[in-house]
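Supplementary Text 2. Reproducibility record for the structural model of the 372-residue chain.

All settings were left at their defaults, and a single model was retained for analysis rather than an ensemble. We include the record here because the model underlies the residue-level annotations in Supplementary Table 4.
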Amino acid sequence: MAKRSVAILFGGRSTEHEVSLTSALGILQHIPREKYEILLIKISREGKWQLLSPNTELTLSALEKASGPLILPGNPSARGFFVLSESSQEARISFIPVDVVFPILHGTFGEDGTVQGVLALADLPCVGGGVLASALGMDKVIMKQIFMQNDLPCTDFIWFLRNKWATSSHVIEKAIIKEIGFPCFVKPANAGSSVGISKVKTEEELAPAVNLALEYDRKVLVEKAIEGRELECAVLGNDDPVASVVGEIIPSNEFYDYEAKYISNESKTVIPAEIQESIVKTVQHYAVEAFKAIDCAGMARVDFFLEKDTNRIFVNEINTIPGFTPISMYPKLWEASGISYSELIHRLIQLAMERYDELSRSRFYLKPEEKK
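Retained model, structure tokens:
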């Protein structure tokens, strides 16, 4: 049986560029090579799509330094990518066919539906959620509103835009103090890996935290801080997804910020989490329902708070392209559930093809025989 060609798309313009490289490195080291031919496509920090040599050394520093000719998605009549090779005399365009794209882009311009839209226009099957799920999962405000409409419990929150803060900061501060209180979390609505997030304990800390969040997004979310435990659950599937075992994060810092996630070695994970079976079942149920609520596909990791005094469970957020290194929570949760890292990659690629076949049944897709 011929191998399928898979384009691993990584890097990107977001603040999570390096996180993306680390996730891609894990996939490249563990994807079943006997089943798949690999195409390396790196989006530089400036946004340039580049085709890397298949002989690129699989280290973080090598991926960061590597460059190559410009590569762009093709057209729907021929599934694949166009490669622009330039020389001193001429520029040549060649075409590389691709069966499926595995985007492992975290944050803005990758996890927010933008890349998923480009790939959909080119009729390229894509691992993970589509445009809608990606956009909803990225915007924490809209995401929470969707969750609440689907009876998923969320913490109290308010949100506002940069221009409203510029003209009415005192009004917003009063609303936060009255409706949310302290401690609270101040977050950019569209960011990941805890970039730009602050835990605010006093009124004096509020304005600096908002200004920090506004460096990363025009929309700010302020939500009540829950004293308790941080739980995570992985979801796998398309229309009938399943949930993994539940894990717990014990952050080295006061909350699971960027340093605690990627720099400090003191944060701990407990898999499976040492919690009551009834809590496990509820978390798994909420995880699957959150996945369905945004019409996600392929993969997602859903994060929760377990309140200390009441054992109430709150859905914090869904990550449609979770961290994917061998030590990231998403693959670790599935490993604890009986699916190895390599098998997980294989299943996600198969789910992408199944999702593509299902979408192709709709009238706005050309049938294979109609393509020229």
